[in-house]
Amino acid sequence: MATYDFDQDNGVDLVVGALDNALYDSDIPKVIQSEATQQLSQDIPTDVRDYISYFYSVFLAKKNHEMHACYESSFNKLTDKYYRNSAWPEAETIAPLVNHDLFFLAIYKELYFRHCYSKLQPTKEQRVQSYENYCEFFRLVLNSDDIARNDVQLPTHYIWDVIDEFIYQFQSFCTYRNRLSKKSEQELNFLKQNCQVWNSYDVLNVLYSLIQKSKMIDQLKAAKQGQDPNTVAGDFGKLQIYRALGYFSIIGLLRVHCLLGDFTLALQMLEHVDSAKQLFLPRLTACYLSKNYYVGFAYMMLRRYSDAINTFVPALDVIARTKQLNSKSSQFDQFSKKVDQIYALMTICYAVCQKSESASQNLHNTMREKYGEQLAVISHGGPEALSVVEELFVFGCPKFINALTDYEVEEEPQLHHREIFMLDIKNQLAAPVVRSYMKLYTTMSIEKLGTFLQVDTATLRRQLIVAKQKSKQYRNTSGSLLEGEITNSSDLDFALHRDVIKIAEAKTSRKYADWFVRNTYKYHSLQDQSRT
């Protein structure tokens, strides 16, 4: 297996004078520059060569801020200028510019294949090559002592993107592999020959290994108990790259287990994460949004709709507060799509709960602007409501994957999970209609309610039992995400005594302070408009 070796002398020479320049050209040592010029293809623009050389120099100098700029800004600008419709140069082509550094070449290849996925249509060969590069990247991280000895550092944002993209490409390959009807005989043979590529065992093994290498669970437990995490972190867990990879791998496992349909295990992965409140790492919007999305969705699939809402709301609040900053990010489109998905799922949860949850008035207004019509249809029940819920679910849910490969039968895991979810929703949608009539009374006969609903007494009794049962949900109050106590998720409670329904409405006191603050802002806004 290849090992990672820094050339410290060349590293120092390469960095001299480079960090204050927008481009890195004249400060590259003459010998290396001459060798690179001879071996590089003449088709590579000078800007790109300078960029790669500068990127490598700040990598050796452990300048995270400059590396982040190279990754987040310069790479995208050069892509738009030269590689909008084509791939970046092969890693072998640019290797002389970076001293044939194995680890940096693995980083470059990761960006190379990510560009193929985002801007182009990756070929089946590129899918396999990208998987092999991830294997090489993680082998170097997990098995090479040189990474720790040289205290290699990477921007935290980039480390998150590596884990995120690793899982995305795993998900993409599983979807590609399972679409058998669109495969030629040649493609099927290729997949069978590469049956171990992007298999779920390897993906899970990488994530669990990174957590173990960094001792991240022990660090989170120590932080929860008020201890110094470094006392249990070990030699690797103290280092920035391992600490970030370990933490983000926990979030990655949450996502993978959701994609595989194991929602209980997904929530178990975060047993210690929330309690520690990300003590080690800066909060990344992308990571926080992803975590809350998958936690909220797992709660939905476990029929804990109130917990789902209470998970979605903080993520939407963060996005709303940082919208102006996020609009400058290269991931703004991804944020926007994820936010729309969360609002779609939250619309279902609100319709099912029939109870006001902890969301600001602005979030309520945004949800009604986006999905107000759908919410109204769902609240009236009936066949149309089912189709609307199904439409929202399909849009908002993640793209499930099938871990097992059957090259004879094409399976659709998303259809399977959708059918399971809709079974519960069918029983839930009768409840809002029943509640709408009961809100008008404190007591009423079952016969009278049956007349309103135009159903017989026996059918209505069954509907009332279902409504009573579905109004009770587990709700997290403290402890791990899976813990909770049974609470009433509806703002209406009732009891059936013989043929009489006794109804009690749980009234929530109005938040007068919020009302006054909100209307004060409106008043000041009107004043400003009148003055202009």
UniProtKB/TrEMBL annotation:
Cited InterPro entries: eIF3l
The entry's keywords: Cytoplasm, Initiation factor, Protein biosynthesis
GO MF annotations in UniProt: translation initiation factor activity
Entry's localization field: Cytoplasm
Example GO biological process: formation of cytoplasmic translation initiation complex
Gene Ontology CC: eukaryotic 43S preinitiation complex; eukaryotic 48S preinitiation complex; eukaryotic translation initiation factor 3 complex
Record function comment: Component of the eukaryotic translation initiation factor 3 (eIF-3) complex, which is involved in protein synthesis of a specialized repertoire of mRNAs and, together with other initiation factors, stimulates binding of mRNA and methionyl-tRNAi to the 40S ribosome. The eIF-3 complex specifically targets and initiates translation of a subset of mRNAs involved in cell proliferation.
Complex formation: Component of the eukaryotic translation initiation factor 3 (eIF-3) complex.
Family: Belongs to the eIF-3 subunit L family.
The protein's name in its UniProt record: Eukaryotic translation initiation factor 3 subunit L
Organism field: Neolecta irregularis (strain DAH-3)
